[in-house]
């Protein structure tokens, strides 16, 4: 079974963030790109990851922070760019699919494989930026510190 088949067979409701991180860690970029080419599976994985972001949010770390973060997952082939936004305000985190008219404080753009490696704790955001695997527009310092606001799983 390929890594993409493994993810496709997952019952996301019963998988902990740590288990998901372990599965992503075992996957090659080829496996992740296979997920990205399957539009329905890609949409399901992205929705699950972003859906869990609110639960992984650490309000005590955010304090009075107010910020809008735009995520652009660049996609490939027929599955183009996916855009999600994370709004942090008043000690809460709200995630929405799509681009709003609001101006984000920071925009992070990356491919599917890099996104999954980043959000599963399998890649360092600073290393990814230095290697140009993630492009940052706006407040680079905010982007560098984003991980402190979320409970990132460890694989």
Automatic annotation (TrEMBL):
SCP2 domain: residues covered: 59-150
Query: What Pfam families does this protein map onto?
Result: SCP2
Q: Which Gene3D superfamilies match?
A: SCP2 sterol-binding domain
What is the official name of this protein in its record? Answer: SCP2 sterol-binding domain-containing protein
Source organism per UniProt: Streptomyces beihaiensis
């Amino acid at each position: 079974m390929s890594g993409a088949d493994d993810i496709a067979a997952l019952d996301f409701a019963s998988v902990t963030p740590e288990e998901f991180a372990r599965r992503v860690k075992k996957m090659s970029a080829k496996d992740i790109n296979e997920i990205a080419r399957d539009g329905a599976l890609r949409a399901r994985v992205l929705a699950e990851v972003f859906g869990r972001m609110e639960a992984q949010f650490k309000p005590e770390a955010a304090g009075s922070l107010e910020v809008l973060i735009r995520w652009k997952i660049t996609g490939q082939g027929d599955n183009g760019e996916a855009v999600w936004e994370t709004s942090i305000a008043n000690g809460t985190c709200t995630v929405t699919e799509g681009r709003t008219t609001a101006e984000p404080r920071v925009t992070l753009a990356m491919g599917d494989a890099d996104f999954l490696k980043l959000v599963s704790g399998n890649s360092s955001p600073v290393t990814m930026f230095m290697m140009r695997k993630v492009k940052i527009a706006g407040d680079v310092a905010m982007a560098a510190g984003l991980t402190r606001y979320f409970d990132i799983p460890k694989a």
